[in-house]
Amino acid sequence: MTTEQSDATDGGGPAGSTTNGDTRLPAEAVGTDGTTAAPATDGAAARAATKDQPAAKPAGGDGPAAARTGAGNGASGVDPHSAATRDEPIAAPGDGAATAAHDGDSARKAGKAATTGQAGKAATTGKAGKAGATGKDAPAAGTEKADPWSAFGPAPDPVLTRPRRAVRAVGRFLVHEWTLAVVAALALAVLLTWPTLRYPLYTLPQDYWDPSLQSWQMAWSGHILLTDPAQLWHSNTFFPEQWSFAFSDTLLGYAPAGMIGTGPEAAVLRYNIMFVLAHALATFGAYALARQLGAGRIGAAVAGVSYAYAPWLLAQAGHLHIVSNGGIPLALAMLARGHGWSLRYGYRPERRHDGWAYAGWMVAAWQLSLGFGIGLPFAYLLAGIVLVSAVVWFTRRWLVRPGKRPFGSRLLLADLIGGTLFAAVGVLLAVPYFKVAELHPNAERTIGDIAIYSPPASGFFTAPAESRIWGGLHEGARATLPWHPEMTLLPGFVLYALAAGGLFFSVWRLRHRLLLLAGVLATMALAMGTRFFGGTFTYVPLFEHLPGWNGLRTPGRMMLWTTLLLGLLAAGAVTAFAARVRELAAERVPPWPGPWLRLATLLPLLLVIVEGLNTTPHPVVPVQPAVMRSVDGPMLVLPSSQNLDQPVMLWSTSRFQDVVNGGSGFTPDTLAHVRELTLGFPDQPSVDYLRILGVRNVVILRGQLAGTPWERIVDNPVDGLGITREEVGDAVVYHL
Question: Has keyword Membrane (predicted)?
Answer without folding.
Answer: yes
